[in-house]
Amino acid sequence: MSEITMDTTELGEKIVKVLKTVYDPEIPVDIYELGLIYDVLVNEDYEVKILMTLTTPNCPVAETLPVEVEDKVKSIKLVKDAEVEITFDPPWTQDLMSEEAKLELGML
């Protein structure tokens, strides 16, 4: 029985699709388009590390959002493990938002 394999780039794209289903409850835009995801790292063993930030250090979802991100990424087939690391370096600014997010929020 052969094991299904996928290259890490393809898996990374699947992870981004899942990240786009996670929303900041205060802003009607997904966390990826908001620019809260700084990096997605996938190693050869399909273990994922996500470096993300929050809109503010005392964000009301600071406890729940990273857990939601981890759980959703872990639910992807082939992902063995997922870890979310929160950073505030660099701090999040509206400049990190995609054009799509800015348009959605009427900022363009």
From TrEMBL:
Record-linked InterPro entries: Fe-S_Maturation_MIP18, FSCA_dom_sf, MIP18-like, SUF_FeS_clus_asmbl-assoc
Domain MIP18 family-like positions: 13-86
Record-linked NCBIfam families: SUF_assoc
UniProt name for this protein: SUF system Fe-S cluster assembly protein
